[in-house]
Write a structure and sequence with these properties.
This protein is of the alpha+beta class and 114 residues long. The protein has 3 helices and 4 strands; from the N terminus they run βαββαβα. Helix content is 32%, strand content 37%. Strand 2 and strand 3 form a beta hairpin.
Length: 114
């Protein structure tokens, strides 16, 4: 079982459901994530190149570990359609023991980020 402090939730936005599905499949198949949830269309308002933009996006929620983040980020950036994709990690402050055991057993440990 991993400690709750090793578990993280990563948020990634994508342009559409197809991109989100491609990321989700890649992350789970490479054991970089135990689970990926894809939320349907959200509205994002942000500043890009000096202008305020409003775009529909799809939110991807990734359950993984801190030690996998570096490789996860590298793999996502390699196939993401955005020039500067949102890839942000949030720590867990607590988690049920059975869930943390499941999470740890489904994510490859990658302490060197390779």
């Amino acid at each position: 079982m991993i400690d709750a402090s090793e578990a993280i939730v990563v948020l990634i936005t994508t342009a559409n459901t197809e991109d989100a599905s491609r990321l989700a499949e890649m992350l789970v198949s490479q054991c970089l994530a135990a689970c990926v949830q894809i939320l349907p269309e959200i509205q994002s308002v942000y500043r890009w190149q000096g202008k305020i933009e409003r775009q529909p996006e799809v939110l991807v929620i990734v359950k993984t570990t801190k030690s996998s983040f570096e490789k996860l980020e590298r793999e996502v950036r390699a196939i993401h359609s955005y020039e500067t994709p949102e890839i942000v990690a949030l720590p867990l402050t607590a988690g049920s023991a059975p869930y943390l055991e499941w999470l740890g057993s489904n994510v490859k440990s990658d302490p060197g980020g390779q």
